[in-house]
């Protein structure tokens, strides 16, 4: 029975690969060309790693194939067809995740799907958002970063006039473009926050807290970058707001934000351990 299930699983994997090869190819090309989603390259290896960590539990779980999984696969394939007909990449890509989840349910059962829920859901992070949703998130972040930059520059005594997402200094004009909105850092930090939370094996609430904290950390880090660029342009000259310095400051700020995220993870772990100790209660007579 086990051998038959392995053979069936291999055949299903080959079938999925054959159907979704063009979708996967376009996805990899976007990871390589779009810096907003370059983190997609690490998602699949981590998903496989988290699935491998469940190998003993999967071996012990009962194999109870479910017809419901076949229904999920059928619906996901309809989503694929709709995406192909409408040239909508997002639909074709998320349909792949539905097919994977439905296939696990159909071949192995709901117990296996529950055990592999995190690796399967993690795959959603590798799928780029539709442009309309991406822009709806990026534009408010652009305005927020420009406002924060204006406030910091004003506090620092630098004359500045803001018009939308454009900061006018005495020596130059800075535009907080979409690439400087901070959405790239936000997406990457959110991904890292989710991975760090899972790797630390903290309770669900603590992991959610760490993921939520990535939002203010990313926003604050990008605001600091915009303000720093403004100060550099005012003190050094317009050339400080472009070229190598601009690119390097992005990397520097992201490293600082990641370090802050690691610090938040350590604090959350301590809080989690303290909460666990309180629940167990102090020793009698202590």
Describe this structure in words.
With 286 residues, the chain is mainly alpha-helical. The protein has 2 domains: 127 residues, no CATH class; 149 residues, no CATH class. Helix content is 75%, strand content 3%. A 3-stranded antiparallel β-sheet has the order 1-2-3, with helices on one face. Strand 1 and strand 2 form a beta hairpin. Helix 1 packs antiparallel against helix 5 and helix 9 runs parallel beside helix 11. The radius of gyration is 24 Å and the shape is elongated. The N and C termini lie far apart (57 Å). The C terminus is likely disordered.
Summary, kept brief:
By secondary structure, this protein is mainly alpha-helical. It contains eleven helices and three strands. The protein has helices spanning 2-33, 40-53, 55-60, 67-85, 89-108, 110-115, 117-122, 131-155, 183-199, 204-235, 243-280, and strands spanning 161-163, 166-168, 173-175.
Task: Please give the structural blueprint.
Blueprint: H1 2-33, H2 40-53, H3 55-60, H4 67-85, H5 89-108, H6 110-115, H7 117-122, H8 131-155, E1 161-163, E2 166-168, E3 173-175, H9 183-199, H10 204-235, H11 243-280
Helix pairs in contact: 1-5, 4-5, 8-10, 9-10, 9-11, 10-11
